[in-house]
Amino acid sequence: MKILKVSDYAEMSSKAAEFIIGKLQHNPKLNLGLATGGTPVGLYEQLVKNHKQNNTSYRNVTTFNLDEYIGLSGENPNSYRFYMNEQLFNHIDIQKSNTFVPLGDTQNPQQFCVEYEKLLAAHGGVDLQILGIGSNGHIGFNEPYTSFQSETHLVELEASTREANARFFNSLDEVPTHAITMGIASIMRSKEILLLVSGESKRDALVQLLQGDVNENFPASILRTHPCVTIIADKAAIGKIA
Ligand code: F6R
């Protein structure tokens, strides 16, 4: 794992954008795995800014999002589809038909998960997966003790994850209890991974990732076994650990 230390959230976001744009220059048909949440908002802002200034094209890019809440349609402002459209897709030249986010309002979540995994395989997999990390070590919505062999699946969210995400909703009650997420094995099949970590609240998770054992009780620890992971972390997250 390579670790790139940056001063703050803004620098993390611009370095991450540079990283992605560099990959796009080599491969305009990049299959990009995307995350939501607070961490990549600044990254998406930078990608939009760069698209406007330099015309970087996403015409031939395909994207796959990690996860989506069950019960929310893409029109719901709290859905991850809505987030992606607002933060990124509506502002770049990507073809919406090439953007895939699990369907939160699918009638048959189990079947959908199988189809999503097939879709990933049919496209040759993800070239570069962007990840954030939960303070309990979750990646995607793979909570502690998720099998390292897991593929796209339906999950019940941990209370701590619902509480952490309640800031985006009117109340905790409104936070869905279940989600669809790519599994750990699905994430590990990505050819390359870029993990973004910002803020003091992620410091313990970063310590555990860098220094703890590789163990299903801390899902992100599996990243230590991936051949091509870059972490961009800011000072507040790193503290004195690396
Ligand atoms: C979101 C996702 C989650 C987040 C994680 C951190 O698509 O997959 O694993 O990356 O919950 O969230 P933030 O960035 O809000 O701290």
Automatic annotation (TrEMBL):
Gene: nagB
Keywords from the UniProt entry: Carbohydrate metabolism, Hydrolase
Main enzyme class: hydrolase
A Pfam short name: Glucosamine_iso
Annotated metabolic or biological route of this protein: Amino-sugar metabolism; N-acetylneuraminate degradation; D-fructose 6-phosphate from N-acetylneuraminate: step 5/5
Function of the protein: Catalyzes the reversible isomerization-deamination of glucosamine 6-phosphate (GlcN6P) to form fructose 6-phosphate (Fru6P) and ammonium ion.
Stated name of the protein: Glucosamine-6-phosphate deaminase
Glucosamine/galactosamine-6-phosphate isomerase domain span: 13-224
Gene Ontology BP, a term: glucosamine catabolic process
Higher taxonomy: Bacteria, Bacillati, Bacillota, Bacilli, Bacillales
Record-annotated active site: 67 (proton acceptor), 136 (for ring-opening step), 138 (proton acceptor), 143 (for ring-opening step)
EC number(s) reported in the record: 3.5.99.6
Similarity field: Belongs to the glucosamine/galactosamine-6-phosphate isomerase family. NagB subfamily.
Domain of life of the source: Bacteria
InterPro entries per UniProt: Glc/Gal-6P_isomerase (IPR006148), Glucosamine6P_isomerase (IPR004547), Glucosamine6P_isomerase_CS (IPR018321), NagB/RpiA_transferase-like (IPR037171)
A GO CC term assigned to this protein in UniProt: cytoplasm
Catalytic activity: alpha-D-glucosamine 6-phosphate + H2O = beta-D-fructose 6-phosphate + NH4(+)
Molecular function GO labels: glucosamine-6-phosphate deaminase activity; identical protein binding
